[in-house]
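Why do we care about 3D structure at all? Because function follows from shape, and shape follows, mostly, from sequence. That is the central idea of this module. The next example makes it concrete: a single protein chain, its amino acid sequence, and then its structure expressed as tokens.
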Amino acid sequence: MSTEANNKTSARDGRPTRVRIFDLISRVLPSAFFLIIVIANAINLYHLLNGRPGVGDAPEGWNLAAAVLAKASTTCFLALMSILFLIRIEPIKKSSGIWPRVTAIAGTFCLYFVTLFPRANLSLNQTLLSAFISIIGTALSIFTLAHLGRSFSLMAEARRLVTSGPYRFVRHPLYLFETMASFGILLQFLSFYTVLVFLAYMLLQLQRMNNEEAILERVFPEYREYRSRTAKLIPGVY
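And the structure:
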């Protein structure tokens, strides 16, 4: 009888332990992944500023300034993501099933395939325009991500309902600004195939929005009213 009681106690204690271990892994692994990219970007920035050979054709003048600003803004965004993964609050509820997780992961990383294609042969003005779009989109993404703070998540999870700041105007400002920054990157690698990748990315992002809205509406009754008065991505349009 004593052994049976001990086994039951161990089972009850074991479940929270497994949950804590899984939560730790889900925080540390993505944080470490983005931190590795941040370090790689920092090294690339160092080479870029020093005009090191072997890192592609070293840009000069305005091209160099645009490349440095674009790389620096992206690095700051990824660094903030790395930090938020570690300090985010526990989710109240998560989406069930595998597909919300698949779309979240695919939507997050599929755009990296664009950078595997050859760079487009752009003029100076075109290069500056693409860099400007990417920098502005990334800067706005950083602002939104900082406002979202510990409620940030890649998966469709409900942590806290945020309706202030940029979320007063649209329900998914982070997706909007990330897509803006991604469009600037697309222009730098523009081709028929990269456009297809970008279209797939947009479809995945739209599905991620739907997944997130479904879980938020289940957890927060007030979300329905917020949704009815707030545009999804573009005020007065969509």
